[in-house]
């Protein structure tokens, strides 16, 4: 999977480092064989990259291309921005990178240059440079201090010419360094989710579909109106790697093409346009309504199964959740699970035993809900499995963080959440390792769970 996808770019970056005479070396460790080493450095997913220098360990958070790796390393081992003294140096830098940010200033020791350097220090996977060389300024047709972003896609160049400071440079770069429509894949995922722009408009469409070009064109045209405010992202529905992403939004291959919006600010929320038609004007209105705050989140729900209450563990969906869980005449324990979650599967036999234990107790309900296809407005799930207790005669909602054993869960229920849920050191370590992040559903290209 993801380790194999990284192997080529990682080897390419290593070769380029060696050819340049760099003292930095790239190495790899089989963490399944070197288990003690993996434990020592807290490895919980593959692939994980760490940078070691002068007894300091830094987590790598850059992209997954050779250029991304090399640019990140350059920021850690040298100056955040390179000074360009000749036109040839400029052309070499431009040719070697998909994106480069250049501060073209009359003075390289002024406030604008200082602001550029500060931003360069924090954006590891983008090469920055600065210059006051007349040949370069003439080549770029610079009339006043300008931050120039050059790229090998879309319009090719963007200029920032006024109010040059740290905030404006950062916003300018974040708004323009990715394509107008960026395709979600292993290389782009970190840039999409790790950037400052937390509102993403997603187009789910198969690249092999007959109308792909026309749909993509409509989507791209809409994206131009929201540069710097949202990211417009293409999800190829024909790619099996993206099945989990479709599932996360409650979509199947038969539902595409489709547009959805997700915000990752504060609390994650998803939104669906009223119309399924993919036209520029419809998308623009949909996104603007979100920015204006006039949209309500789109909550997924399945239909209520006919046999939802036939087994000891009751089956909840979005449509019957509040009626059952918020029934104050009963104590209700709910497991929020994902079908693909390995740790949910490990809990299943214990949870079934728990349901069997309380099936004849009228004031206790043991229930479960597939949180990948059912969402509840006032319940936010961050990892799977999540267990929440809704005590009898109370409006409280109590999270369970204790051991996942029949005895501990029984104590938690019997005490209305007062016992059995306390986190011990050992239990904290267990549950942290066991829980699977919900974010991995749409950012799964970054890590494979251990």
TrEMBL record:
Q: What is its EC number?
A: 5.3.4.1
User: Lineage in the entry?
Assistant: Eukaryota, Metazoa, Spiralia, Gnathifera, Rotifera
Family assignment from sequence similarity: Belongs to the protein disulfide isomerase family.
Q: Which SUPFAM superfamilies match?
A: Thioredoxin-like (SSF52833)
- Ranges for the region named Disordered are 418-450
Question: Thioredoxin domain location, by residue?
Answer: 1-78, 290-418
Keyword Cell membrane, does the record have it?
no
Q: Per UniProt, which keywords does this protein have?
A: Disulfide bond, Endoplasmic reticulum, Isomerase, Redox-active center, Repeat, Signal
The protein's name in its UniProt record: Protein disulfide-isomerase
Q: Where is the composition biased (Basic and acidic residues)?
A: 439-450
Which transformation does this protein catalyse, written as a reaction? Catalyzes the rearrangement of -S-S- bonds in proteins
